[in-house]
């Protein structure tokens, strides 16, 4: 098992979600991770990139989404950077709370946390948000 | 090829939408929203979504299912789901939406439930 790193820089458009998912699927396929884990990574990446495009960069095509993929013998790690104003994940309501179940949005972060082993957010020194997600083998 | 293909059938006063493809942000979610709006405009308020051939759904697609459910409910109609894949059933379970939607494995049972 070798260590592999891939970096992608993509425009802030909705179709970037599918582009990123295809690139990640290719990367994950080479990493030899299980099909179940690959499904979870795919879900999480789509949600993270959707958030970066919609809520981070607000579809401003002057801004980009950067994705870094790392595969090691222990795990697959994916970081998604946007150039938006940042947000506090602790303020995102629990979509499974009774009062939120019928809301039409707000499940993306919940899925990321459900399908990955570690998810954390950080603010970049130059601005923007990075979400780092890790799936152990 | 479209991300989501929707084929419409009528069984009595129930409209069945056979869906195949992906219900994801962008084209797939919009296709579902457009189909439901059109049915409501046509006065078709009893709707069964056959999801057997839906290979993938994201949080936007799940949001669209919820939006469809509430929009149809507001018009006095009913939206029910047929033949969930295991993956979709898992997603609806963890989001607690399986307790909201009326879900059937068998089309005849689903159609009878509208009576």
> Major sheet of chain B: order of its strands?
1-2-3-4-5
Cα radius of gyration of chain B in angstroms: 13 Å
Q: What is the CATH C level class of chain A, in words?
A: Alpha Beta
CATH architecture of chain B: 2-Layer Sandwich
Percent strand of chain A equals 25-35%
- Helix and strand sequence of chain B: EEHEHEHEH
Oligomer: heterodimer
CATH superfamily (homologous) name of chain B:
STAS domain
Q: Decide which structural class fits the backbone of chain B.
A: alpha/beta
Q: State the CATH topology of chain A.
A: Heat Shock Protein 90
Q: Tell me the number of structural domains of chain B.
A: 1
The ordered string of helix (H) and strand (E) elements of chain A is EHHEEHEE
Report Rg of chain A. Answer: 15 Å
Could you report the average pLDDT of chain A, rounded to the nearest whole number?
Answer: 93
CATH level-two architecture of chain A: 2-Layer Sandwich
Overall geometry of chain B: globular
Mean pLDDT of chain B: 95
Characterization of this structure:
The complex is a heterodimer of chains A (137) and B (115). Chain A is α+β, with helices and mostly antiparallel strands. Chain A has a single domain, classed as Heat Shock Protein 90 (2-Layer Sandwich), CATH 3.30.565.10. Chain A has 3 helices and 5 strands. Chain A has helices at 15-31, 35-56, 108-115; strands at 4-11, 64-71, 75-81, 118-123, 129-136. A 5-stranded antiparallel β-sheet of chain A has the order 1-2-3-5-4, covered by helices on one side. In chain A, strand 4 and strand 5 form a beta hairpin. The mean pLDDT of chain A is 93. The N and C termini of chain B lie far apart (36 Å). With 115 residues, chain B is α/β, with parallel strands linked by helices. In chain B, helix 1 runs parallel beside helix 2. The model of chain B has no long low-confidence stretch (mean pLDDT 95). Chain B contains 4 helices and 5 strands; from the N terminus they run E-E-H-E-H-E-H-E-H. A 5-stranded mixed β-sheet of chain B has the order 1-2-3-4-5, with helices on both faces. Chain B has a single domain (4-113), classed as 2-Layer Sandwich (Transcription Regulator spoIIAA). Chains A and B meet through helix 1, helix 2 and helix 3 of A and helix 2 and helix 3 of B.
